[in-house]
């Protein structure tokens, strides 16, 4: 397996509370990995540790050969949806993405437009994000995650607030990205998402991670 993420003996504590305990995981390229578990089981903490938004109490995370917090502060070449995507309400969807794209400045207007069209949004719409439905905001969050063509996607409940058509469209996008060789890690409460999309599934329970049969 061509390994792109390596997690070794990863533990995260918040005071006396252990949110993640001795997690080990190898993530290969070109697969979709599902992480299931109840709210508060540690899924979001794991995602934040992989990306660099949290620092581990013990253990280490290696992404694309670089240890997070040692070789680099944040994981590179990665698209993220963690918790509810936050956008500027007074800006259009396109202007929000353009603002975010300006942080790294690796893509232009055409790539932003393409990502919006791919998720079913009109890049020329003058509607402000504050007037978006929850489903539209979720689509915009997915567009933001994919617009820079990252090698890795980490998606926390990417189907939230989507109608049936939206769910089908996003599933198609994710399987297409996997077929292009992208690596996707997603958390979902929807059993069908996990069964349809995932090549491997892991269950998080009280901060411990274990492989689960499909």
UniProtKB/TrEMBL annotation:
Keywords: ATP-binding, Nucleotide-binding, Transport. InterPro entries: AAA+_ATPase, ABC_transporter-like_ATP-bd, ABC_transporter-like_CS, P-loop_NTPase. It comes from the Bacteria. GO terms for molecular function: ATP binding; ATP hydrolysis activity. Pfam families: ABC_tran. Residues 5-214 form the ABC transporter domain. PROSITE patterns: ABC_TRANSPORTER_1 (PS00211), ABC_TRANSPORTER_2 (PS50893). Belongs to the ABC transporter superfamily. This is ATP-binding cassette domain-containing protein.
């Amino acid at each position: 397996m061509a390994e792109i993420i390596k997690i070794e003996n990863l533990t995260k504590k918040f005071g006396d509370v252990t949110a993640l305990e001795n997690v080990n995981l190898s993530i290969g390229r070109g697969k979709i990995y599902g992480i299931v578990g109840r709210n508060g089981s540690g899924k979001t903490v794991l995602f934040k540790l992989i990306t660099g938004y949290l620092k581990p109490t013990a253990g280490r995370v290696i992404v694309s050969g670089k240890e997070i917090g040692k070789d680099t502060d944040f994981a590179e070449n990665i698209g993220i949806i963690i918790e509810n995507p936050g956008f500027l309400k007074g800006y259009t969807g396109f202007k929000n993405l353009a603002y975010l794209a300006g942080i790294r400045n690796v893509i232009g207007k055409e790539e932003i437009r393409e990502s919006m069209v791919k998720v079913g949004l009109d890049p020329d719409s003058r509607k402000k994000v504050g007037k978006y439905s929850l489903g539209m905001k979720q689509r915009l969050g997915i567009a933001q995650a994919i617009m820079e063509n990252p090698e890795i996607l980490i998606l926390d409940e990417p189907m939230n607030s989507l109608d049936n058509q939206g769910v089908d469209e996003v599933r198609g996008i994710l399987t297409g990205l996997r077929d292009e060789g992208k690596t996707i890690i997603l958390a979902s409460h929807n059993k069908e998402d996990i069964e349809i999309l995932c090549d491997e599934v892991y269950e998080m329970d009280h901060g411990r991670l274990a492989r689960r049969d499909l």
